[in-house]
Design goal:
single chain; 216 residues; alpha/beta; Rossmann fold; 8-stranded mixed β-sheet; two-stranded antiparallel sheet; 10 strands
């Protein structure tokens, strides 16, 4: 598949791109500048020498993608999707955004999103796209450590069963990862909020936590 990563130059986007390039998919790294997108693609090729990895501006990389991953901070979601709405029409859009902010003395705090979740807001902005929510709780550091498995579950939320199956299939191709159907898009609110908890656990215990669902 051809996978595009909007805002893909950060650790989470690059980590996912590296893992999925290693699984044999073509990846395109997007950024607000063409040069930074190309720099991101070069990092993927450095980690996976045989990777089919290209880069450019966000608008340049999404056009021929089968799946588009949104891997930027929540503050950039509304303007980015407004600019890309027409290009994302008809595509599976996987929202990796976790709305959070950092408060001194507290750490990461989940933002109360008016639309209930970042994924629901994205779906409202992209009525002609199929929005799925996934990968918010994965450790970027573990994703980028290619020689080792990630060992976590990825909770996938969405309205469209076929799109969820596509994302679950991609998750299952990452060594150590299991994709789990977590229900409708409204469930993404709880998955997104978990991210701030995991970040604070990481800071407290100096580690890189993820989640697993037992009993399934």
């Amino acid at each position: 598949m051809k996978l595009a990563f909007v805002g893909g130059t950060g650790p989470e986007g690059l980590g996912l791109a590296i893992r999925l390039a290693h699984a044999g998919h073509a990846v395109a790294i997007g950024s607000r500048s063409h040069e930074r997108g190309e720099e991101g693609a070069a990092k993927v090729r450095e980690a996976v020498p045989a990777a089919d990895a290209t880069g450019g501006e966000n608008s340049e990389v999404v056009g021929d993608a089968d799946v588009v991953f949104l891997t930027f901070p929540y503050s950039g979601q509304q303007p980015t999707l407004e600019a890309l709405r027409s290009q994302l029409a008809g595509k599976i859009v996987c929202n990796v955004v976790a709305p959070l902010e950092f408060e001194k003395g507290i750490g990461a705090v989940a933002i109360n999103v008016p639309g209930k979740s970042a994924a629901q807001e994205a779906a409202a902005q992209l009525p002609e796209s199929t929005v799925v929510s996934a990968f918010q709780n994965m450790s970027a550091e573990k994703l980028m450590d290619l020689p080792h498995p990630v060992e976590c579950d990825v909770l996938v939320c969405g309205r469209d069963a076929e799109a969820k199956a596509t994302i679950i299939g991609l998750a299952n191709q990452i060594d150590g990862v299991r994709g789990v159907d977590a229900g409708g898009l409204s469930q993404s609110r709880y998955v997104e909020m978990l991210t701030s908890l995991l970040i604070n656990l990481n800071r407290k215990y100096k580690t890189h936590t993820s989640i697993k669902i037992v009993g399934l």
